[in-house]
Amino acid sequence: MRKTLLRLTPVLAAVACLIALGTTTPATASASPSIQSKTSVSLTFEHYKIKARSGPQAKYSIKHLRAGSSISLQRQFGTAHAWRTVKRLHHGSGTVRAPAIMMGKYNYRIRVTRGRTTVVSRVRTVFAYGTIKFAILCTDWLITPCTPNTVQIGDNAYAEVEFEDFAQYPSYNMVLDLNSTSCDHLHMSFATSDTTSGDKARLKVLQSTSDPVNASTPEGTIGTLSANLNGGPLIVDATDDGGFRVYVNGNAACYSPSGRR
Description:
The structure is a single chain. This protein is 11% helix and 51% strand. The chain contains 2 helices and 18 strands. The protein has helices spanning 2-21, 134-141, and strands at residues 40-45, 49-51, 57-63, 70-77, 82-89, 93-97, 104-114, 117-120, 124-133, 146-153, 156-163, 173-178, 183-192, 200-207, 210-218, 223-228, 234-240, 246-254. Strands 2, 4, 5, 7, 8, 9, 13, 16 and 18 form a 9-stranded mixed sheet that branches. The protein has a 4-stranded antiparallel sheet with strand order 12-17-14-15, with no helix packed on it. Strands 1-3-6 form a 3-stranded antiparallel sheet, with no helix packed on it. The N and C termini lie far apart (110 Å).
């Protein structure tokens, strides 16, 4: 028995030595859980108001784009407002010019798909403006019936629109009256049928959230008036110092053919 104990003693001593020196099996470090970032998409247009028959240009950016994703610029079509791809994109960020659009109001978005997962940007609206002749808008805009005609003003042949009603300054006759409009600019020409020296034709544009715009022109001349429109209620008044007929014409920049919103 004594001999056995003596044989075990060196082994026990070696174990004790290893413990004293701290020689132990290292613990395996646990890996922190991975966090998968979510894809996000942004879209901004250089100009939200453009001329009809041109293509709007936009900037887009995609954060945490995953490999194998499909990227497209989409626009709504038809009365059902169906989303359709108008351009395929191949990078996670950049600029893109959409195909040309006609006069109207258009909604766009960026769509990113990977497998069954779809991420879209916020919808952005672009307005495409075209020039509408005043004679075309006449029937829809005027309070009183209007008739296209050509008259002589001084030494000029003036294509104008006549009104049945007219007023004598300081009273005005209401020519246009809209609760809202799709037009952002109005340019008008006007003249008086009065031949009395010194008398003037007067035109005035009124809006609910903008200052009035006034213009006048002496007899025998053709005056002009331009006004930026804010889309709200719009009134155009006309008058003449002598109570004679006032001729008008012009055009408007609108995103709808009727000029109404």
